[in-house]
Design a protein that fits this description.
The protein is 72% helix and 0% strand. The protein is an all-alpha fold. 14% of the residues are buried. The model has no long low-confidence stretch (mean pLDDT 89).
């Protein structure tokens, strides 16, 4: 996911690090870039987990999704703040 969208995630990492230090100052820019990143993340999550929900491995889908988001939050701890006013 990150390899396929290197420039986007590079830009997001830069604004994420600024946002951590000064959230009020960078909220608007963080939301703009963050929305693009969230679209990529959700699309990837759907590809990873979406097909499992109805199959015989459906019970593992939520755990896989949880592990996926844990990994994302490790690199971007403020990812959940994208879209806040």
């Amino acid at each position: 996911m990150v390899e396929n969208h290197q420039e986007l995630f590079k830009d997001f990492k830069q604004i994420h690090d600024k946002y951590v230090l000064e959230p009020e100052k960078y909220q608007k820019e963080y939301n703009e870039i963050g929305q693009e990143v969230m679209n990529v993340i959700r699309k990837t999550e759907n590809m990873l987990c979406g097909h499992q929900e109805g199959g015989k491995y459906g019970k593992f889908s939520s755990k896989l999704s949880e592990a996926f988001w844990t990994r994302i939050r490790r690199d971007y701890p403020k990812i959940d703040f994208v879209g806040l006013l």
